[in-house]
Write a structure and sequence with these properties.
alpha+beta, 22% helix, 7-stranded mixed beta sheet, 5 helices, 5-stranded antiparallel beta sheet
């Protein structure tokens, strides 16, 4: 990818939301000319529809390698799971995608990548922002604001050709209450983060992703051997809750979320005594933890 830094434009229309420093991010994350570390390039653009769409397209054309990172100061057509729209003011959050090509991992285990990304993001934010971030299965990031559970971010994983996956992350950083898209949303600022400087936050999250991805790959994608399954379960706010799973085909089941199995599926124990694994669907928390 050819870098085109949004920060080069020096567009400081909002002094509380300075642009990311693309050159500094590359210096801190891209190692030895692309060798010796995961990241081969970090590109920051002023605005785009969706970083996931752009990076999937680049990968399909052979114009992006594993470890390519695309960051947007603003997304005009950002998407979450189930094609939900994700909107936020320019420079108010972190909106980025990473191309991964886990050749040594069986494709059957690639379903762990969004959960792995969730663990990495939560770990990175804990270190850099000093806040506890919980995970809602399968891909939401939760924080506590005034004792209330709020969504601060989300993850979307999409196949990129036969050998790749693009993981996209959106995190609300400096949104005020008035700017939140829905009342259930939150931001790092509202959660009391010790910093809302997006440069160190992004570096921390990407370094955490590199660490967890490397550990998972070395274990051949085994979620137990890599420690991923245990760590995800420990930080998952869904487990131990009564939930309703809204499934494809207008079907739903209600019960207690009791485990995340070896395939990354949420196991729900129903009132009928059946333990049903859910691999895809929308999960609604029905009572506090």
């Amino acid at each position: 990818m050819t870098p085109r830094d949004a920060s080069d434009d020096s567009r400081w229309s909002d002094l509380d939301r300075p642009p990311l420093n693309g050159a500094a991010l590359r210096r801190g994350l891209v190692r030895d000319g692309g060798h010796g570390g995961l990241y081969c390039d970090v590109e920051v653009v002023q605005s785009t529809g969706s970083t996931n769409n752009d990076l999937v397209g680049l990968a399909a054309r052979g114009d992006a390698e594993e470890g390519a990172v695309l960051v947007a100061e603003e997304q005009t057509a950002g998407r979450g799971r189930l094609d939900r729209q994700w909107t936020a003011p320019a420079r108010s959050g972190l909106f980025f995608s990473v191309l991964l090509k886990p050749a040594e991992v069986p494709v059957a285990r690639w379903g762990w990548l969004p959960l792995l990304t969730g663990v990495a993001v939560a770990t990175g934010l804990s270190r850099a922002a000093g806040i506890d971030t919980a995970l809602k299965w399968p891909n939401d990031l939760l924080v506590s604001i005034g004792g209330e559970e709020r969504k601060v971010g989300g993850i979307l994983a999409e196949r990129a050709g036969e050998d790749g996956v693009v993981v996209g992350v959106g995190i609300n950083v400096t949104l005020s209450e008035q700017e939140l898209p829905v009342p259930q949303a939150g931001s790092l600022l509202l959660a009391g983060a010790i910093t809302t400087d997006r440069d160190p936050l992004l570096r921390a999250v990407l370094r955490s992703l590199e660490e967890w991805y490397g550990r998972w790959r070395e274990a051949g994608g085994d979620p137990a051997a890599s420690g991923l399954q245990e760590t995800y379960a420990t930080g998952c706010a869904t487990l131990g809750r009564t939930v309703r799973a809204e499934l494809p085909g207008d079907r739903s089941i209600t019960g207690e979320a009791v485990a995340v199995d070896g395939d990354g599926r949420l196991v729900i124990a129903t009132e009928e005594g059946v333990q049903e694994p859910v691999g895809a669907g929308d999960i609604v928390h029905l009572r506090p933890a």
